[in-house]
Amino acid sequence: MSAPYDLEKGDAVHPGRPVQVDRYTVGARINHWITAISLILLAISGLALFHPSLYFLTGLFGGGQMTRTIHPWIGVVLFFSFAGMFLRFWKANLWKSEDGTWMRRIRDVIAGHEEKLPELGKYNAGQKMVFWGMSLLIAVLITSGVAIWQAYFASYTTIEQQRVALLVHAVAAVAIICVWIVHVYAAIWVKGTISAMTRGQVTGGWAWRHHRKWFRELVSSRKSGTRGTPAE
Fold this sequence. Notes:
Strand order of the largest sheet: 1-2-3
Strand content: under 5%
Helix content: 55-70%
Shape: elongated
Oligomer: single chain
């Protein structure tokens, strides 16, 4: 029998009081934080170059010229770091029928009426939309960013193409900042989520309340012996 689609490497449940559930490996957390820090640095340096009123932010990077130089390189780090996350998490973020039900009951989500929601896998519909939104926007940002990277690629594009790429890059940057804000707000709003990305673990109660289907799968796989101790 094949493993459920949303059980990832390192996912494991540990009996005890309280029950502890491994949600993210050390590698996954390092990958996440490199991506997060890169995105924050890109947002600050990008905003510094976006409008004269925010130019003072270039002081954080050693001045305007240095900001222009390192901004695209941070983008390269973000791209490869997120690519690692994409390979880790894409399968568990595939859309399922219960995600549509979760979306239709968004009022119950906001009101905290978990008992009225379907049992969910490792990620809910909101988390999946953030994941796919980030995936799309980072692809747009790296593509448009290369087109306007004067130091290396200016000869490959026309002025008109660079103007369009600059506009697309700015719009995508604003959009990904908005998605990031939603991601951070949701992590703070759902109590107990932050520990998943700092210590890699959540309590059994948290998993049961928010991702019951995933928790059931973990317990079942442990009983059947197909999933033992964490790999990392």
